[in-house]
Design a protein that fits this description.
D-Maltodextrin-Binding Protein, domain 2; five-stranded mixed sheet; 7 helices; elongated; 2 domains; three-stranded antiparallel sheet; alpha/beta
Length: 234
């Protein structure tokens, strides 16, 4: 008979971490580091619209473990670590007079038609075809970069902040591991090393293997040289 896990009890050795991210966030570096350190734990990623970032963490049986969110967000029941700020930009058609400038201010946009829904998935198309200006974070604009659009920094617009959020009280140990990666904790960190050995069965670090080899392999001692006898007096 199979051992059944008590209802509501989380697996002590989780093998999966589900990470969400709002448009514009790039996970390439962190996914690569995760794959190198935790080969037995799958990292699943899912793009989440900004308007759904909190619900993706709080609601439903298929909710995320963590999510890269764009602040502000309702922090009730969540831990949030601010990570970095993003420069806001305005996207204009290539033939728009503003496209000739290197950067613009909010005053330069006075009287111009601004897209009412900047997070719409067709914002780039609407800017190119209808001529409305699109105000958005720089990383989002870059994902929609195209030859018929120009991206201009907004010098006096408020920056937006990307943060990492997860639920208060979530005991998934992989959450702490991922936070360490995002914060730049190295593989030689004592916390990372002990967690890897305890939960993932990774191989011992090279230094530990070399030390073990030195202590487990006896070194043959050289035979002592024969001592010359001292002649007795007659």
């Amino acid at each position: 008979m199979e051992n059944q896990q008590p209802a509501g009890q989380r697996d002590a050795r989780p093998d999966r971490l589900r990470i969400g991210f709002v448009p514009g966030v790039t996970l390439t570096k962190w996914r690569r580091i995760w794959a190198e350190r935790f080969r037995r734990a799958t990292l699943e990623t899912l793009e989440v619209p900004r308007v759904e970032q909190r619900d993706a963490l709080i609601d439903g049986d298929d909710r995320l473990d963590m999510c890269f969110v764009r602040l502000p967000i309702d922090r009730d029941g969540l831990h949030v670590i601010p990570l970095y700020e993003e420069q806001p930009v305005v996207v204009v058609p290539k033939d728009h007079p503003l496209a000739e400038f290197d950067e613009v201010s909010l005053d330069d946009l006075a009287g111009e038609p601004i897209l009412p829904d900047p997070e719409s998935p067709d914002a780039a198309d609407r800017t190119a075809w209808a001529g409305g200006l699109w105000l958005t974070p720089q990383s989002v604009a870059r994902t929609q970069s195209r030859k018929d659009l120009a991206i201009l920094p907004l010098t006096d617009a408020e920056a937006t902040t990307i943060g990492l959020a997860w639920r208060v009280g979530d005991d998934n140990p992989l959450i702490e591991e991922f936070i360490g990666i995002v914060r730049g904790r190295t593989v030689n960190s004592s916390r990372t090393q002990s967690a890897r050995e305890a939960r993932h069965g990774d191989r011992e670090p090279d230094k530990a293997k070399k030390a073990q080899k030195r202590t487990s392999t006896p070194v043959a001692k050289a035979a002592p040289k024969p001592r010359r006898g001292i002649p007795k007096k007659r």
